[in-house]
Amino acid sequence: MGTAEDLFEGQPTGLPAPTSRGSSPYREGSGPAVVRHVGGYTPFIEFCAAQGVRAEELAADAERLIWFLRVFGSRIAEHSTLSAAAAVFAGNTIAGLRPDAQWTVYEGAPPTVGNRGKAFEANRLLEALRSADDDAVRGLVAAILDWARDEPEELPAMLPRPVSPAAGQPRYVRLDLPAKTYYSREGEPIRYGSHWGADGPSPDSYSLDSHPERFAGLHVVARALIEHLRAVYDVDVQEDPVHAGELVREVKDVRQAVKVAPRRSGAASQTLLVTDYPGLVVHAGVLHDFPFPVCVCDACDQTEETTADRLEQLVLSVAAGGYRERYPVGRKRWSEYALTAFDGSGSESGQGEPGAAAGRLHDAEIRLRDVAGGWSPWPLRGS
Predict the structure, then answer these.
(1) By three-state DSSP, how is residue 138 classified?
(2) Are residues 342 and 267 located together in one domain of the fold?
(3) How far apart, in whole angstroms, are the C-alpha atoms of residue 238 and residue 270?
(4) Best exposed site among 80, 254, 280, 308 by fewest CB in 10 Å?
(5) What span, in angstroms and rounded, lies between the C-alpha atoms of 110 and 102?
(6) Which of 192, 230, 198 is nearest to 83 (CA)?
(7) Is residue 238 part of a domain?
(8) φ and ψ at 238, to 5 degrees?
(9) Which range (14-18, 162-166, 207-211, 289-293) has the least confidence?
């Protein structure tokens, strides 16, 4: 890397290893390494010098860096290596604004930098600046600086612990999903899941959704999960369009709404909405909706198989008691969830504005007081 890459905290490293969608602050053990300083930005330092600007001054002044990227964005975009270096430099600068900020990479998604409250995608930030007007740039600067000044909230970690499968309990096995090849407009096979190389997604891929039909198998997985829950647990299964109203978000083009409610006080129900897209949304507990797939654009490069993995992990982990919700959290009164995988393979969490009506939030606050230690495991049939 050379001695020039010493403008940020610590030694420069590579990006962290990709994790499953959702942050992982509750993973047991040492957890993934915290990355705040990514290397590979020497070409941007050299570019700055050629413009008569010292890169170390930009590294210490996020506002000045943003305007610099706005002015020279088109020239930077002409060279993929320089563009990648500028994105790394911008991400490192953002990471340096807060002690709790870090780089994160999720499977099938571009790297981001930020904390649990807000994260920025450095590549997309550079693209947006090239076409932004002055008011938009000022708004972005204000948002970044407000985020940088916001004091971190020290909150106790949630670590739900799912129960192990009982002896003789039937295991869930995914049905085989039919393999199919999809093609680009040029007639080339698309290798979803490994579509992009080291340079990352092309700029126009963020607005493309070439083959939504590749997620049709999720409907098969959803039906199999519902039948598994019915066979293993003591539950009520109700298929009724009225259950679509239980979600916090409004979901359009609902094909089927199925609520699976365990017959135990303190256990979280799950409502699965099958959509025409094709895809589905799962509402777990009282305040959280989980869409599958999360993002459908070509840039995110999600596959049916990895999306099914996430769907199964959520549904089976909630049933095993590996799910917890909190509301209100901190000064901002956000909602928060934590999920520990039923098989011990990992964990994830999320936090943000709940987006529900005041009356629903009041009811959720009361309900979650009764399950402050986490939602209970579902009762087994015949137990």
Answers:
(1) helix
(2) yes
(3) 11
(4) 80
(5) 14
(6) 198
(7) yes
(8) -125, 120
(9) 207-211
Would you mind telling me the total number of residues written for the chain in this entry?
Answer: 383
361 with 246, same domain?
A: yes
Are 211 and 297 part of one and the same domain? yes
- Which of these, 62, 202, 233, 37, lies nearest to 124 by C-alpha position? 202
Q: Are residues 56 and 128 in the same domain?
A: yes
Mean pLDDT, residues 258-284: 96
Whether 96 and 222 share a structural domain:
no
Q: Looking at the structure, tell me whether residues 125 and 262 fall in a common domain.
A: no
How many helices, marked H, and strands, marked E, lie in the chain?
Answer: 9, 11
Q: 381 Cβ partners below 8 Å, 6+ apart? A: 231, 232, 233, 234
For residue 31, tell me if it sits in a domain: no
Q: Give the phi and the psi of residue 33 in degrees, each rounded to 5.
A: -65, 140
Global pTM exceeds 0.85: no
Instruction: Count other Cβ atoms within 10 Å, centred on residue 15.
Output: 15
Beta strand residue intervals within 45-165, DSSP E: 102-104, 112-114, 119-120
Q: Maximum distance among all alpha carbons in the chain?
A: 76
User: Can you tell me the distance from the alpha carbon of 381 to that of 234, in angstroms, rounded to the nearest whole number?
Assistant: 5
Q: Of 149, 166, 187, which marks where a domain is finished?
A: 149
Of 149, 171, 191, the last residue of a domain is: 149
Please give the tally of structural domains in the chain: 2
User: Positive or negative, the Cα torsion across 91, 93, 97, 102?
Assistant: positive
Measured CA to CA, the distance from residue 294 to residue 286 in angstroms comes to: 20
Does 334 reside within a domain? yes
Q: What value does the mean pLDDT take over residues 299-307?
A: 84
Of all residues in the chain, the percent with pLDDT exceeding 90 is 62
Q: Is residue 62 part of a domain?
A: yes
Q: Which two three-digit tokens encode residue 332?
A: 């901002």
Contact 210, 190 (CB under 8 A): yes
Residues 281 and 345 in one domain: yes
Q: Report the C-alpha gap between 80 and 99 in whole angstroms.
A: 30
Residue labelled with tokens 């999360």: 294
Do 342 and 207 reside in the same domain of the chain? Answer: yes
